[in-house]
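Lab meeting, item 3. Inverse folding demo.
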């Protein structure tokens, strides 16, 4: 859309079309005169030349109008339009030759027609290029608030982005940067290409750097972004190659660099047989389906054609949101049911499993925020442990094939109640798996595979530090960290869930699957990177005029400096290079079930101290803080 000021620079379309018609008539006339002059050295106009001119103008005008020469917007005329002009002029010259030959008028010789072809096309295309650039120049020149930008990547995507931005009032392209030495000090579309080492010298010339390499790997992206840190430049990037090719996004749909782009890694290709085997044609129930992990489980499960997907969630707003999202993705041959209810209610869960003939359960329902769990210990124990007991018992009654517990690295030598509750949930699953190993010797037809998948922080989850930092940056800081040395593992939700689904197909019962989380990240470094990516400066004693300050608040109750994935023993490799399995010690069912009954009794009576004592006996490695 043009602004209200554009009317001073742009004529109305009808008027512009009339101008173009007049220009074309002048081009035809001048081209014919020029061809005649080259033959006679005279600008003569005899009756034959006049008749030739009248026919040429009349036919030209008819052809141009009928074939839509004046429909194209002059400000955005492209190479396709230029080719169409050449086709029209070629057709026009051929008709003139045909008329001259048919009526023996001897209008144009073959040599003259070739000359006319080049002259008329050169003038037609050249004048339109000048007109386009003039109109765009006036339009862009009228905008005093243009962003001066550089484009990182002088390949095909960079050229497309440049062409697109040239018609955009918001941007003025100063130069390109590229890693290819062969391109340095050359030009693309009249714009110079420099080495990335020149960024420091040029960083005052532009406001933004646009990364235009859609096929860029995560590792290479991280290298480039890290090389640009501290230069005070706002960095944007184009969509991925997949989004561009699928039509989900345009080449100029620029987005901010997210911290996920720095922390993420190139995902390992999934083993299709594992994914298909764990999902296709099966009836799957996801508990905690409205949460970060649960909702992503539902999204990915739908991609592999389950027979039925059941979403169990006790939080109504969360269930509503995922329902609205999945309604747009439902396939005709997949049944989806949205169930509002409590996973710790055994009778309710049992009836659900039996009525729906569930074959697989992914148990993701849990209270997972460490500080909130410390403040509400009985509710956390009842929800996290109670739901695990309920799910396992209902799975046995309904003869479900597989039950997968979504666990956490906080369950390893836990220092907080949430971790202790998740560790006890693991012990419950392990005890059930051990029971079935013994029962399998007697009755092989009735066996439930109980397994667990344990992993660390996922980017973008409701409990992740990343959303918190984003909010704090948006309101001007400060960023709050509990300790300067605290480190965490990070993985994208998508990758974590994809690995969970593949691990489930590897389950035989009793395993603790561990996901390769990559290298741990120092949270202080994470905070600094997020400030820099926002185009801001860190405020500290060395830079008191900076934008965002980082403050340390001290470790919260139950918080670790670092997390672990393995309790004891060694992890063994599996069919997937990012999935490992461990067989850890656990409490036998004959000792665990009575203790759980006592724990349940103390929770019902709201006896916090006795409930915590029982929990501590079952999870002795828990460093109790409450």
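The presenter then showed the designed sequence:
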């Amino acid at each position: 859309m043009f602004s209200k000021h554009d009317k001073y620079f742009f004529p109305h379309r009808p008027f512009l079309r009339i101008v173009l018609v007049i220009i074309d008539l002048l081009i035809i006339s001048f081209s014919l005169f020029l061809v005649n002059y080259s033959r006679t050295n005279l600008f003569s106009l005899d009756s034959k030349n006049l008749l030739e001119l009248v026919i040429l103008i009349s036919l030209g005008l008819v052809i141009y109008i009928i074939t839509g020469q004046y429909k194209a917007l002059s400000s955005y005329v492209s190479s396709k339009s230029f080719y169409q002009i050449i086709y029209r002029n070629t057709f026009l010259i051929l008709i003139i030759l045909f008329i001259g030959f048919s009526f023996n008028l001897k209008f144009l010789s073959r040599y003259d027609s070739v000359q006319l072809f080049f002259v008329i096309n050169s003038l037609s295309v050249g004048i339109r290029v000048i007109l386009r650039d003039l109109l765009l120049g006036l339009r862009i020149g009228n905008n005093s608030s243009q962003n001066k930008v550089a484009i990182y990547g002088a390949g095909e995507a960079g050229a497309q982005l440049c062409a697109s931005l040239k018609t955009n009032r918001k941007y003025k392209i100063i130069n390109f940067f590229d890693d290819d030495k062969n391109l340095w000090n050359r030009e693309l579309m009249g714009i110079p290409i420099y080495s990335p080492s020149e960024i420091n010298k040029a960083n005052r010339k532009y406001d933004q750097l646009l990364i235009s390499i859609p096929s860029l790997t995560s590792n290479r992206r991280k290298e480039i972004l890290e090389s640009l840190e501290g230069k005070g430049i706002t960095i944007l990037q184009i969509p991925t190659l997949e989004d561009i090719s699928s039509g989900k996004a345009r080449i100029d749909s620029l987005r901010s660099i997210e911290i996920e782009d720095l922390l993420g890694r190139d995902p390992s290709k999934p083993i299709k047989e594992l994914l298909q085997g764990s999902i296709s044609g099966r009836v799957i129930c996801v508990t905690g389906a409205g949460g970060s992990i649960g909702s992503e489980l539902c999204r990915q499960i739908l991609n592999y054609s389950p027979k039925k997907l059941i979403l169990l969630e006790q939080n109504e707003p969360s269930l509503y949101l995922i329902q609205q999202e999945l309604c747009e993705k439902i396939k005709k041959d997949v049944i989806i049911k949205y169930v509002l209810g409590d996973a710790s209610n055994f009778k309710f869960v049992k009836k659900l499993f039996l009525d729906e003939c569930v074959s697989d359960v992914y148990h993701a329902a849990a209270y997972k925020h460490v500080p909130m769990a410390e403040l509400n210990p009985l509710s956390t124990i009842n929800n996290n442990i109670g739901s695990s007991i309920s799910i396992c018992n209902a799975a046995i009654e309904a003869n479900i094939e597989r039950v997968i517990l979504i666990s956490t690295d906080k369950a390893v030598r836990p220092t907080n109640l949430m971790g202790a509750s998740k560790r006890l949930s693991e012990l419950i699953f392990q005890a059930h798996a051990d029971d079935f190993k013994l029962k399998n010797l007697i009755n092989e037809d009735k066996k439930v595979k109980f397994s667990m998948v344990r992993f660390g922080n996922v980017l973008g989850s409701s409990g992740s530090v990343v959303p918190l930092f984003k909010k704090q940056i948006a309101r001007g800081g400060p960023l709050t960290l509990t300790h300067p040395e605290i480190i965490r593992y990070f993985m994208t939700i998508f990758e974590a869930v994809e690995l969970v689904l593949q691990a489930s197909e590897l389950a035989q019962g009793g395993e603790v699957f561990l996901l390769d989380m990559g290298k741990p990240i120092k949270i202080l470094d994470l905070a600094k990177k997020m400030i820099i990516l926002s185009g801001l400066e860190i405020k500290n004693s060395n830079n008191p005029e900076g934008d965002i300050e980082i403050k340390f608040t001290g470790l919260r109750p139950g918080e670790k400096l670092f997390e672990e994935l393995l309790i004891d023993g060694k992890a063994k490799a599996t069919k997937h290079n990012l999935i490992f399995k461990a067989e850890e010690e656990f409490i036998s069912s004959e000792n665990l079930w009575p203790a759980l009954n006592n724990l349940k009794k103390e929770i019902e009576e709201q006896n916090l101290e006795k409930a915590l004592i029982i929990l501590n006996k079952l999870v002795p490695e828990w460093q109790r803080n409450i």
